[in-house]
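User: quick one - fold this with guanosine-5'-monophosphate bound?
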Amino acid sequence: MRIEQDLKLGFKDVLFRPKRSTLKSRSQVELTRDFTFKHSGRQWAGVPIIAANMDSVGSFEMAASLAKHGVMTAVHKHYTVADWAEFVKNNDTSVLNNAMVSTGTSEADFQKTKDIMALTDDLIFICIDIANGYSEHLVEYVEKVRTEFPDKVISAGNVVTGDMVEELILAGADIVKVGIGPGSVCTTRVKTGVGYPQLSAIIECADAAHGLGGRIIGDGGCSCAGDVSKAFGGGADFVMLGGMLAGHEESNGEIIEKDGQTFMKFYGMSSQSAMDKHSGGVAKYRAAEGKTVLLPYRGPVDNTIQDIMGGVRSTCTYVGAAQLKELTKRATFIRVQEQENNVYGKE
Ligand code: 5GP
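Assistant: Sure. Structure tokens for the protein plus guanosine-5'-monophosphate:
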């Protein structure tokens, strides 16, 4: 047994230190980023925020709405090939260029990914997603997907340490998804005692990825726009959001009326609810590692995404970053023991 003494930080442990800036207004801040990906050589430009591949967040409807803002959606893996065929018929190129096709790592998943990708050349992102990215099986699967799709952008995860980020990039991933345990409906830390504070995971994994020309997605744990900025400030190239984009018209969750109020169901992809729906219940050998919650229904996602983007722009003006790309260079985090003032309740 070994104990690491280095301090590891979550979003709640820091704030940005403001810096002198020549920017007069947040309208001067450019949130669009241009990437050329390491293995595929593909170029992509957009706002590097991604709706999570959860079945009450990353829907086709979400992809269509967020693409208008240049924002991406990792479409969840529970749509059939026929659903995708219907979807690609009615969508313009920008929606498809901003959609990730999510997949697990089974033989059936591989065949399904091939069938979906064959529908159109406009789909360019594949998101290989398993809860525990430390499995040797993931590395082999990434190699296999890279061989099959040399010119597609491949994201793989989830991991939280630099060694595994390097291994996945060397196996063929353009992007590595980072986060174990921080999610809003995740109970992994409670059920297993495993995890890593998300800001430190991002800082360490970004360093490892960038050294090899790879990219990372900071996935999970953002509860407000300030957290999204902190993730970018820590070095995340992309930030993935579940809970912050759940509960909306486009999230496609089950609507529930209770005491005259409208709610939407939101649950973790390893929760009892998800396993009941997609796998016929929780298998005997495993425990559910996700929660089910009811969120007040929030209407269309437009206002929310604009609010998030406005918050990130504002962070950039406070630290003098004219482009999102500069945020990490301009970021000095201060360690704090308080965040917001909750005297009149929580925002
Ligand atoms: P959020 O933005 O809601 O804090 O986090 C979203 C992320 O939580 C997802 O992208 C995914 O990585 C993670 N997640 C989703 N469902 C589950 C679950 O059931 N268990 C765990 N451990 N993580 C989950």
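One thing worth noting: Residues 123 and 269 are 24 Å apart (CA to CA).
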